[in-house]
Specification:
The complex is a heterodimer. By secondary structure, chain A is α/β, with parallel strands linked by helices. Chain A is built from five helices and eleven strands. The chains are: A alpha/beta, B alpha+beta.
Chain lengths: ~230, ~90
């Protein structure tokens, strides 16, 4: 492939769509397309990204209404065909609600909205999204969420572990996975998971907000770079 | 005839309810030392223009599964009440 088209879905209430576009468009050979939630066409996207924000005002439950939008029917079909789909923060919540990923996100353990940089460990670097990271590398990524407390029943967690679907975990600066470092209280300190086929990834941290050193970290840039390189082949 | 579905959605007992915890602490601070637990859920009323209660029940169940509740972390209970049709 000579060029890559990245589609960024825009729901009413998305607020990281332009940051995501900025991060994704910083690589050569990349074209971005903003995909409005009422559309039925992914406009030739090779990669689809669901950005952060508060789709439909987080009414009912974060991500619950977005899953029935026209564009999401296309995104689900696209993902089921094996194409890459990345969900960031609210995008992760949408992926869980529409069943592309397993589990749910509930309110943070300490009730607070957490808006800060956190350390995240790369548990699996054999996915399209994490291929440019070293295994067990510690990333500095910002988070901004009130409902990022990942939950799934124990059988699901066991399956996620068995299939290496846990891609990112919260950790401290030294890479230790501790209760204190797991600020939102997620089961198994889960910060990001993939589907079994590894073409769909959802994570709470914001890689697009860590795409340049000027932003405090550029650890997020390699996620987009790796993804683009994989698609270019 | 129509049916009003009164739907109560609660977090599963295994899920930590941080809102409920905050309310419980506030009640403790107010001096209600015997209030042991508080859990917060949602209450949704839906009017269904169906004459048949089996059909109303089926729709209520289906909308809970599809949208109103997230079965991974929430339970729901449905109560149907006969009402006069709205239109």
């Amino acid at each position: 492939m000579d060029t890559v088209t990245i589609g960024i879905v825009v729901f009413p209430g998305s607020n990281c769509d332009h940051d995501t576009e900025f991060a994704a468009a910083s690589f050569s050979k990349v074209t971005t397309r903003m995909l409005w939630h009422k559309e039925h066409d992914l406009q030739g996207s090779d990669i689809v990204i669901l950005p952060g924000g508060f789709s439909y005002g987080d009414y009912l439950r974060a991500g619950s209404i977005a899953k029935f939008s026209p564009i999401m029917q296309e995104v689900v079909a696209f993902a089921r065909k094996g194409y890459p789909v990345l969900g960031i923060c609210n995008g992760f919540q949408v992926l869980l609600e529409c069943g592309l990923l397993e589990g749910a996100l509930s309110r943070n353990r300490d009730k607070k909205f957490i808006c800060r940089h956190m350390y995240v460990k790369v548990v699996n670097n054999r996915t399209m999204f994490s291929v440019l990271y070293d295994e067990n590398e510690v990333l500095n990524l910002p988070v901004a969420h009130g409902e990022g407390n990942y939950y799934a029943p124990r059988e699901t967690i066991e399956l996620l572990e068995e299939n290496n679907q846990i891609v990112f975990r919260y950790c401290d600066a030294g890479g230790n996975i501790t209760e204190e470092a797991n600020l939102n209280g997620s089961v198994s300190a889960i910060a990001g998971i993939s589907n079994k086929e590894k073409n769909v990834l959802g994570l709470m941290p914001h890689p697009e907000r860590a795409s340049e050193a000027l932003l405090g970290s550029n650890d997020g840039a390699r996620m987009f770079k790796g993804l683009v390189e994989q698609v270019l082949g | 005839m129509a049916y009003k579905a009164k739907i109560r959605i609660t977090l599963r007992p295994s899920i930590l309810d941080v809102q409920g915890k905050a309310v419980q602490h506030a009640l403790e601070n107010l001096g209600y030392s015997t209030v042991d637990a508080a859990r917060i859920g949602k209450y949704i009323e839906v009017t269904i223009n169906e004459d048949n209660n089996i059909e109303a029940e089926r729709i209520s169940e289906e909308i809970c599964q599809k949208l109103l509740a997230n079965p991974v972390m929430e339970n729901y209970a449905i109560e149907l009440e006969k009402v006069n049709r709205q239109n």
